Amino acid sequence: MAFQYVTDLEGPVTLNDNAFELCRDFLPEGEIFFSQVSRYDDYLSDIEKKEGYQAGDTLKLILPFLKAYGVTDRKMKEYSREHLILLPSARETLKKIAQKMPTFIISTSYQAYLEAFCEKVGFPLANVYFTKLNLDHFVIGRSEERWVKDFQNEIVTLPLFDFGSDVESFEDLPVEAQFTVNRLNKIFWEDLSGMQIGRLIKEIKPVGTREKALALQDCLKKTGGSLSEVFYVGDSITDAEALKLVNTAGGLSLSFNGNRYAIAGAEVACISSNGRVLFELAEAFNESGKKKVMEIISKIQQSRAPRPDVRLEIINNSNRKKLIKESETFRQQLRGKAGTLG
To answer: What architecture does CATH give domain 18-77+134-203?
Structure first.
């Protein structure tokens, strides 16, 4: 058997949301701005299902704005290095797992952030998938810079865009949210697309939902393994398709402090503030496959003295809603504002 471990970075390994943090610290009212664009991303990918668009494309939508406010590749790399926050025990966990079996990271995050991470923890960049970006390659003129900044100022004043799980179409949105969607549609797909700096949106290809699934298949080509031999750990909407692929094929798919999208695709839910449990499960998986891991989880669930540092449950129809609520609540407590996005 050619077992291998594949994980997202932000969430299961680090506590960052690098794109959110870049907006927060480089753009005026950047926290509001990123929240608006991130919710818009959820709407386009999950509700409207816009052709050619996928969850995670937030990372290309925000680039013209970062460029307008002077962010460069060097600044992005330095910022990522200085603000990197690891989940407790994550460095040791990743190192130990990599000693046991082939280990890969598939992340939607920007190249600079993944490079900073690999340099700090000593993880091989060759085993990492990320959103490739050379921001310095793109040029923005002064007039376009002013326009982009005006758009950014407008976006943060639009009615806050949010929607519940009962929304299935544009018509289901509140009137204020419909207004925000219409305005964002014009800004991103008409105004910015007609500018030279709009090339950033057209040319950058984030490692979103589909690309993560493709990257997973590429990992298997490198190792000669199959989906049934994969232990995949994810936490967000961009992991949903890869989690489902592994789940359907009989591999081990685990949501680690995941949101509703991750839990919908995974077979196991893990809620924990420490990465140590992932090594325990990975070690069992490498020794005896998925069956051994499921036995461990069943024993934990049946124990009268549950572990205070970790919650592990096999997901089913009867506990799914409860797990979503508990996992999303813990996710927000652990990661702050970043835990409510994507």
So the answer is: Orthogonal Bundle (1.10)
